Each structure stands twice: as C-alpha cells, then as structure tokens.
Amino acid sequence: MYKESRVLMDTYCTITVVSTSRDRAQHAIDEGFAEIKKLEVLLNYFSPDSEITAVNKAAGIKAVRVSKETLEIMERSMEISQATGGAFDPTLAPVISLWKFSRDPSASAVPSPEAVRKTLRLADFRRIAIDGSTSEIMLGEQGMEVDLGGIAKGFAADKAVEAIQALGIKAALVAIAGDIRGYGRNLSGEGWNVGIQDPRPEAETDKPWEEIFAVLHLNDEAISTSGDYQRFFFKDGRRYHHILDPESGYPADSDLISVSVIAPEGVVTDSMATAVFVLGADRGIRLLEAMGIDGVLVDRDRKVHLTGNLRGRLTIVREGYKITDK
Ligand code: AMP
Ligand code: MG
C-alpha cells in the first residue's frame, strides 16, 4: 500500500494505492495528482487564468468556449441544482465573496443586509446557459459569477480515481479533504474504512480532522462531508459558517451541524452534502431516499439521522452521538 499527500485545491489531498510494484504505484499516484491539478487550474474561482474566471468575466456579454471537463462539471452542477430545488446553487459566488470567509477569522465580517439583498439578486442557476454542442457557457447578467467550491473536490476525486483505474491498479482511495472516493479491496481484502470527522470535538486539538465520531465501510463509492465547523467565524455569540442558504444569502440556519452523503460518484456526494445541509434533516433524508443515495446527518443535539440503507452499516465511535429512529 503506497500513500502520498500533496496540497492541491487549497487543501490536503491524499492518494492511497494498492499495488505489487512500487514504480507502478508511484506512477498511478502521480497521474492521480496530475488530474486534480488539471481541474484546479480550470476551475479555480480565485485564479485570473481559470476557465471559470473567463466565464465569470464574460457574464452578460458573451458565451465562453470551455474544455470538456468544465462543460461536464457545469452540466452536473445544473442537474444537482435542479434536483435540490436550488438548495445547491453555484451562482451564489457574489454573495459568498461578500462574507469573506477566510482562514483568518478576524478578517471576516458580517455584510450589510442591503449588500446581501443586492448580490443575491444575481444568484440563480437557471440563468446559466450551457450549449453542449459548442461547449459554450454564458451567464445571464453582468456581475453574475459561478463558484464550484461545493462540487469541484468531489468531481476531482472521481477523475483521479478514473485515471488510476485506467492504469490497471486494482484498489485505490483518493481523499481531497472531506471528499473521498475509493474502489477495490485493500490489503486486508476489504473495502476502505473511512471515519467521519467529529463536528464538535470536546477537547481543543491541533489535528481536529483526526477526531472522528463514526466509521463506515466504503465499497466502490464516494463519501463527502459538509459541516458548519469547516469554515466559520463567531460574531456576537453567533456562528457564521460557509454554507449559504440561497433563499436568504445568509449561512443556512440548518438544524444540522454535519452532513455526509454516500453515492457512487464524488461529484454527486460533494454537491448533495452541501445541499442537504441547507435543506435540513427531514427534507434532506426524504430527498436522498428519493434519489436512491445515502446520508449520515448529524443534528444540533448530536442525534444521527440515517437513510434506510445505512442502518447497520455505520458504527458510532464517540460518546454523545446517537442514531435516531425518527
Ligand atoms: P462544501 O465544503 O462542499 O460544503 O462546499 C462549501 C463551499 O461551496 C463554500 O465554501 C462556497 O464556496 C460554496 N457554497 C456555499 N453555499 C453553497 C450553496 N448553497 N450551493 C452551492 N455552493 C455553495
Ligand atoms: Mg460539497
């Protein structure tokens, strides 16, 4: 089993590969990272040279021809926006920029209600025009912007896995922060065990990602986790986190603190975890079950809501968390 971590897409990426040959494993790992790097270059909202920035700059002016990768992720984003009734909306970018969620909480600020209202007017995924035949994308109005931060990591995990699989590797796990996809059997002849991060670790720790509250077995599928603890700041005793409710432009006032979604593809788990966080426990479970995919939803009382299929598959490893029947 060979494993390597690199910083890409503004986060830690780890690729684990099972192979009998060190050279073949290293080659597969390099190819996996190359795939993630390629997507980072195409999709980075903050880079002046990315295709997404070109689309954003041309909003309301002209259509922009994009690569097949950018076209594909935009089409998949639209499907999820539609399926979630707009709870996932990649055109929230202008509102997200207002909030200035950064690694430095002191740099963050609560924007004025007028500013939120004005920029929220620009957000509507229905005003993205995609022409698959010419591979062109156009946003409906100047000032509109797309940010794929809620879907790109899962999509990149899919592409890295496909690249590794194409090299004949029998088992691998690609983790881009909380977006993870695996396939095949590891050295113990099983699928991959993955932990879900504890959204409220008791003790202060400098490695919060090592604190987990539950584990489950991942077969040939992906898991993504979204939560209010990943990027946030406190102001006047209130937690402002980075998942916005497209209806209000404010951090989703959800009854949930963490959502994990399990499905065959990372592009689906990543975007759906973000959307279900916005929708809350009841609507979230109903939507996931209607779509035939799975979820682990943790509410503010640390009650864990599961889709039907997951019962018996998830093991709680931390006190205070309880699977609820409701
Ligand atoms: P994730 O960590 O996958 O839940 O994605 C969160 C990121 O997605 C945020 O940092 C924003 O860039 C973006 N985002 C926030 N709220 C939404 C939303 N309702 N729909 C789509 N993207 C969002
Ligand atoms: Mg997501």
Describe this structure in words.
β1 and β2 (11-18) form a beta hairpin. 31% of the residues lie in helices and 26% in strands. Strands 1-2-6-7-10-13-14-15-17 form a 9-stranded mixed β-sheet. The protein has a 3-stranded antiparallel β-sheet with strand order 3-5-4, with helices on one face. A 3-stranded antiparallel β-sheet has the order 8-9-16, with no helix packed on it. The model has no long low-confidence stretch (mean pLDDT 94). The longest helix has 22 residues, at 22-43. The protein has helices spanning 22-43, 51-57, 68-83, 93-99, 113-120, 152-166, 266-279, 281-291; strands at 2-8, 11-18, 64-65, 128-131, 136-139, 171-176, 179-183, 192-197, 212-218, 222-227, 232-235, 238-241, 256-263, 294-299, 303-306, 314-316, 322-323. Among the domains are: 51-139, ApbE-like superfamily (T-fold); 191-323, T-fold (Roll), CATH 3.10.520. The chain binds adenosine monophosphate and magnesium ion (MG). Magnesium ion (MG) is lined by residues 150, 224, 226, 270-271, 273-274.
Features:
globular, binds adenosine monophosphate, 326 residues, binds magnesium ion, T-fold, alpha+beta, three-stranded antiparallel β-sheet, 8 helices, nine-stranded mixed β-sheet
How is the topology of this model organized?
Layout (H helix, E strand, L loop, with lengths): L1 E7 L2 E8 L3 H22 L7 H7 L6 E2 L2 H16 L9 H7 L13 H8 L7 E4 L4 E4 L12 H15 L4 E6 L2 E5 L8 E6 L14 E7 L3 E6 L4 E4 L2 E4 L14 E8 L2 H14 L1 H11 L2 E6 L3 E4 L7 E3 L5 E2 L3
Parallel strand pairs: 15-17
Antiparallel strand pairs: 1-2, 2-6, 3-5, 4-5, 6-7, 7-10, 8-9, 9-16, 10-13, 11-12, 13-14, 14-15
Helix pairs in contact: 1-6, 3-7, 6-7, 7-8
Bound molecules: adenosine monophosphate (AMP) and magnesium ion.
